[in-house]
Amino acid sequence: MIGHGLRGKSLEIFQTAFTLVCNRYDWPFISNDIRSCYVEFMIVTILGKAWRVVGADWAGWDLEHDQGARVEIKQSAAYQPWTERSGAKPAKGSFGIGVAKGYYEGGWRYVELNGRRAADLFIFAWHECDDHRNAAQWTFFVVPEAKLPSQKTIELSSLRRLADPCSAETLGETVNAALRDLPRLKAHMG
User: Fold this and answer.
1) How many CB atoms within 10 Å of residue 95?
2) Within this chain, do residues 181 and 141 fall inside the same structural domain, yes or no?
């Protein structure tokens, strides 16, 4: 239920503001600052109830499975809200994969990563069509963290060499297969 725990005027204000926020971002091309959040919630919806969004500011990963699997999501899109108006060329697809120094567990305890990544898998989401809201228009690449190179960014062309693309329809089974192939999850490494 939207506005759980609110009553009276506070509930009315929240519901109106929530509707305005939804209307504000209900456009085919979602701006970068909001699109990453949208893509995380789109993917967690695709993957199902055993998954939850845990990413927040300075979190170590974005999604977590009930069994402890950690997933980092990276997204990029060829077309941005300003592409058509500015005459800019479509982006070629680049994703940040640099190793963070650390993250905040539970939002308060800092954990150093000592040169390693915290997630078990990375899901790279690429969009090159006309409506970011449409899950069927996204292409996904599921890559075990151990297969990623030690660099700050990775191009779409390099991802295509690391993993086969999959659709929203096959993302869940692709993620499950990749998790089965891992020797063990980072959450269970102690």
Assistant:
1) 20
2) yes
